[in-house]
Amino acid sequence: MITAGLVEALAGIVGARHVRTAPAERVTYARDGLPTHRRVPAVVVLPGSREEVIAVVRLLAAHGVPVVPRGAGTGLSGGALADGSAVLLVLTRLNRILGVDPKNRIALVEPGVVNARLSVAAAPHGLYYAPDPSSQTACTLGGNVAENAGGPHCLKYGVTAQHVLALEVVLGDGRVVELGSPGGEPWGPDLVGLFVGSEGNFGIATRIAVRLLPLPRAVRTLLADFTSLRTAGEAVSAVIASGIVPAALEMMDQSCVRAVEDSVYAAGYPRDAAAVLLVELDGGSEAAVTADAETIQSVLREHGARSTRTAADARERERLWQGRKKAFGAMGRLSRDLVVQDAVVPRSTLPDVLETIARIAATYQLTVSNVFHAGDGNLHPNISFDGRVPGLKARVDAASTEIMEACIAVGGTITGEHGVGLDKLRYMPLIFDAESLTAMRAVRRVWDPEERVNPGKVVPVHACREWSGIGTRNAERGTRNPIAPSSSTFPIPTSALAP
Amino acid sequence: MSDRGGFEALDACVHCGFCLQACPTFLATGDEADSPRGRIELMRALESGELAPDDPAVVVHLDRCLGCRGCEPVCPSGVGYGRGIEAARALLATKRRPAPLARAALWALTTPGPSRIAYRLARMLRATGLPGAVAGWGRLRFAMGMLAATRPVRNAEWGVRSPRVTADSARRTPHSALTTVLLFRGCVMDGLFSHVHDATMRTLEVNGYAVREVPGQVCCGALHAHAGLREEARRLARANVAAFGDGDGDEPVVVNSAGCGAMLKEYGHLVDEARFAARVRDVTELLAARGPRPGAPVDVQVAYDPPCHLLHAQRIADEPYRVLAAIPVLRVVSLPDAAQCCGSAGLFTLLEPAMSRAVLAPKLASLRTASPQVVATGNPGCLMQLGAGLAASGLRAAARHPVELLDESYRAAGYYA
Amino acid sequence: MTLVERVRALLGADAVELAGGPDAVPRVAPASPDAVALLLGTARQEGWRVRLEGAGTWLPADAPADLALTTRRLDRVPAIEPQDLSATAEAGIGCDLLRQQLADRGTWLALDPPGLAGRTLGSVVATATAGPLRQGFGAVRDHVLGVTFVTGDGRLVQSGGRVVKNVAGYDLTKLEAGGFGAFGVIVLVHLRLRALPRADQTFVLEGTREDLTQVAEDIIAAGLQPAALELMSPALARREGWGLAVRLAGSAALVAAEEAGLRGASGGRFTALRADEAHGFWMRAAESFATRPVAFRTGGLPDSSDELLDLLQHQVGDEWVSASPGVGAIRWAGDTTVDRLRRLRRTLAGLEVPLTLERAPWSIRSAVGHFGAYREGVGPLIAGLRRTFDPGEAFVVAVEGSE
Predict the structure, then answer these.
(1) Residue B17 and residue A328: Cβ atoms within 8 Å?
(2) What is the pLDDT of residue A491?
(3) Is the pLDDT of residue C10 over 50?
(4) Residues in chain A closer than 8 A to C300 (CB atoms)
(5) Is C84 left (phi over 0), alpha (psi -120 to 50) or beta?
(6) A82/chain B closest Cα distance in angstroms
(7) Minimum-distance CB partner of A189 among C82, C170, C382
(8) Side-chain half-sphere of A356: how many Cα atoms within 13 Å?
């Protein structure tokens, strides 16, 4: 229970001006980057140091109050939302870069450090932080760790999990544990790997050691455009099969290209193309990158590119990338509301899946724009709509589900980098059986036995089975969940609503 | 004018958060309610009636907005934040009167009669040298520092050798076809920065413009609009449109104050005078259009700090650099995060001193590192804020308008002889 | 019914091999993941203690147990997708067979684990034993997209998937990769592949350790990105002195450029190996680790490699040592005692360097443990995870030592 006394005690830890209880202030924290979900937290707390974070978590543990960690609130799964029973713990003030070790290529940061700022700080040493989610100018590294964030350049360099070496974590009961070592070798099982991507359910990272990479000495950025989406999808497979691993391989369809070209981030993408591919090659040697870029360019042309061009200089490259990275934000130009999906499919199925998505969009009479990490098969269909139109949201939800099912049918998954959060909870039983969901829940309870940190996210508890230690404890509390014999009992609207 | 009074400009926000790091107040507090995205949430709730315009928790966060519009150029969806916040402030103003200090300042600085007296007193005080001597961090001492920063600066005072006038190049270029431009004088600029007006006229004339004075003009109304006094702002706007000739006049209106320029360019939205708005030019735009003509060398190290209302509101980025580039030898040192607001923001520095200083602090830290002799910026508020901040933190640098530096260079080149 | 009769009734007569190990523990080879689940479910009911085996070439098959579960009949490769650069393989497939099948489809698993060529995939994943290619392609976990595993009480659990990017649910795969079987027996692995490199060149330089350490530093400082950069003791390198081996792999253009860079960084002192020489060189080095009784790995910072090699030399000798100075990892093999290993782990822990015991006779590994010297608060988490995945303590795994 959140009492006046508890609020006072919180203020005693962080200072009264860093505790927010007024409705107007709490409302500003009701959404993250996916505004279709909205939950107003009971209290918002903004600690200024790791000691304050620990003290707050211990206080909330003593009162049995749920706590939800939040970084910049740019997540795209409703993962950082707290409802009226929970305290939202905002980590933006823990924004110090504690150290950069250029010799060993390591940085130690607090969780509120903004992703792009780390690369800026590392640049004088010739280093950078590789994972580059499109929100990197705003999102925090703590959030990146919680979500196992990706980004265009993860095609070559891997997602966040591959760049986190060690963590200091506050568990839900206030214990502080150190995971991993600065060299990257774990002290036992790989608990860092397990923690990364746990969406705040395992605890709150208060210190993060990450690997930095040397800035590539040579970079080539190619833009190729296509007159059909299918051809573009086929070209992606051809590039992957060429044996050359691009640093990034991104696709945007026509609707997305036009939204970007209408924005301040206009990049000079051809507006009449059905799709454009942005391909980047990088490496330590100018000659090798040039040769590889030429190979890729001919692969693209052989596979139907209408034209290809290379960014002439760093400025043009930056422009091509800004257009891509701000594409999600530019969707606001199409309509006032937006849902975005994050499915991943085997790369060879891209041409078929893209056609399926277009067909679903047509069936439901919706605008779907695609902007995604093609090299990873990580799709981001954006559905633009006006939520004020009665019945439209239901149609959007039905189309989303149908898109997701199509991706799963070809062997894909429901989220590649945005996380499950609230948004994809309902899809979890489509890819995991009850046994596996229950195993996940059991692991969560090892870290957080009361399931009090970021409750209600990631694992749909009613789809879980009984598992040693879980069922009994819940039974004692009188909140035992019904045992679902299989995922098929979980209600998913599989049949489409009539458009 | 739409019937939603400007709130419709916020519709495009999809909550992506790309604006957060461009917002000086969010950087200072880390609080979503002090970010553009959070304030948009508040403004939407105000429009829908979910939150009341007299809710103190709404008011405090909207009041804390600098109005720098640093969020606009980074917004992929093109949200019209500036129009939204003015609409919201107009709504707040229906429930409260502006703070007494704000009303006093507006009265003293912008009403023709009283302001003449106020500025004369201020200039007299300035001439005593006292404000410069007592400049510091306290509220009053900071205000003294601001006043001291309006003083015309002589080269020797900040360690720059005065260039020698070379007589042989001392010849004004005769322009057969002079373009006539109309000078917008404003209130603070006219009262405390008349030397910048003089420099503006001289440098424009060297570049082929004939500058004409326009009688009957008044304050641009920006400070009123920011305070939510929209009707007052409209009244001033109409007076200016009338003075500068709304029907037949098509001469460019030249402004050397970024804040006034941004406001005049908004007259299309404010009073439906898009034709007038389209005539407004910042002085650096006009100069850059002509090169500008290179002057004589000035040996000085300059940091350019773009005023928000020039960079974000008017999207004028390169022109001031081209003005500085016309001065041989002058070196421009780069300031990290130069695009961040200095915390001046019109009356903000007086009304929200704590937040204003918090926003100023990182700016001063990067100035300490860059250690220029001059900080160039084209807005009276920024000149005063930076000047006071430099003095208070003991940095030996002067805040000056870019055209002052060009003027200096032209004088040395003998163009005025 | 005896244990053997129960198992035969459950899985069929051919699933059990009597007198399998030297200690006559019956060896059971289930032929499907479901059979593994069935067996372990029964083990839970009966209270049987189970040790896990692959091909039996890495960890000695000597843990005291009621039965040995071997994955050797789980040797199918259900999918190789060259266009997606992914594959799905059962855990009992030998790495040599898998490598051949992948190569036939133009693909490559960029892992070169220590041990004999026939080591099972499951063994490599469960012990997270990466080889020199970790310099260019990362740890074992970076190659594993998902796993299916069976818990100690017979539950079949899937984690991850076969797509190259996946954040659906908690990443239990990370717990299984390097869990030494304490959190379940891996039955199926989804792998991230690479295209078979168009060019693959190995260069070796012989010299003193000091000299080669400097050369390695120069290579990294020059911005080269070799697939492997391995500093090897004379016995491992089969040279008079220490050997520094550099492997370049990728497109022809990349390898040519890196080779030029290598010449520049080293003054052209490296000797290029022919393809068959290179193959033999890396294979013999990998096999050497399976011929000594004990092997362990340490993970320090890149700039501490030299200091750690000194420490190893001082405490346990350095006859069989291989270091990746670019990533800070060192693998050691040889003959040593429980006491020396404990002391070494303590010393290393003081330097923030973990030591993972990879292989040793049961007498040593039960005393020393694969892991140890946990940081504060980590022990209870690991104990909790073990209880979750092996509530009846069916698996005989020396997770922590008995100290």
Answers:
(1) no
(2) 30
(3) yes
(4) 183, 185
(5) alpha
(6) 15
(7) C382
(8) 19
Whether pLDDT at B389 is above 80: yes
Quote the pLDDT of residue C140: 97
Closest chain C residue to the Cα of A457, Cα to Cα? C169
Which chain A residues contact residue C197 at CB under 8 A?
Answer: 243
Neighbours of chain A (3+ CB pairs under 8 A): B, C
C225 touches chain A (CB under 8 A): yes
**Angstrom distance (rounded) from CA B199 to CA B204:** 8
- Global pTM reads 0.92
CB–CB contact B33 A24 (8 Å): yes
Q: What is the pLDDT of residue B165?
A: 60
- Using 50 as the pLDDT threshold, list the residues of chain A that sit under it: 468-499
pLDDT at B161: 64
The answer to whether A171 faces chain B, any CB pair under 8 Å, is no
Nearest CA in chain A to B39: A28
Distance, in Å, from the CA atom of C247 to the CA atom of C262, rounded to the nearest integer, reads 11
For chain B, report the end-to-end CA distance as a whole number of angstroms.
50
Chain B residues close to A46, C-beta within 8 Å: 29-31
ipTM surpasses 0.90:
yes
Asked if the Cβ–Cβ distance from C164 to A105 is below 8 Å, we say no
Terminal C-alpha separation, chain C: 38
How would residue B177 be classed by pLDDT, with cut points 50, 70 and 90?
low
Cβ–Cβ gap B33/A28 under 8 Å: yes
Other beta carbons within 10 Å of C304:
21
CA C13, C15, C19: angle at the middle one, nearest 5?
95
Return phi, psi of residue C57, to 5°: -105, -10
Which residue of chain A has the CA closest to B57? A24
Cα distance from A357 to chain B (closest Cα, Å)?
22
- CATH match of B7-93 with 1.10.1060.10: yes
Which positions in chain A touch B30 (Cβ < 8 Å)? 46, 90, 92-93, 95, 112
Nearest CB to C84: which of A348, A416, A435? A348
- Kindly write down the DSSP assignment for every residue of A419-480, as one continuous string: --TTTTGGGHHHHS-HHHHHHHHHHHHHH-TT--BSTT-SS-GGGPPP-TTHHHHHHHHT-P
Tokens linked to C65: 């147990």
- Spacing of C-alpha B263 from chain mean position: 10
CA angle B38-B43-B49, nearest 5°? 130
Domain ranges of chain B: 7-93, 139-164+293-413, 179-288
Find chains touching chain C: ≥3 CB pairs under 8 Å: A
Can you tell me the mean pLDDT for B145-169? Answer: 71
Residues C90 and C167 in one domain: yes
> In chain A, where are the structural domains located?
4-90, 97-214, 218-329, 334-434+448-461+489-499
Class level of CATH domain A334-434+448-461+489-499: alpha beta
**Both structure tokens of C61:** 């098959």
What was the pLDDT predicted at B166?
58
What tens digit of pLDDT does each residue of C351-370 get?
Answer: 999 999 999 999 999 999 99
Collapsed DSSP state (helix, strand, coil) of residue C142 = helix
- Whether residues A188 and C382 touch (CB distance < 8 A) is answered with yes
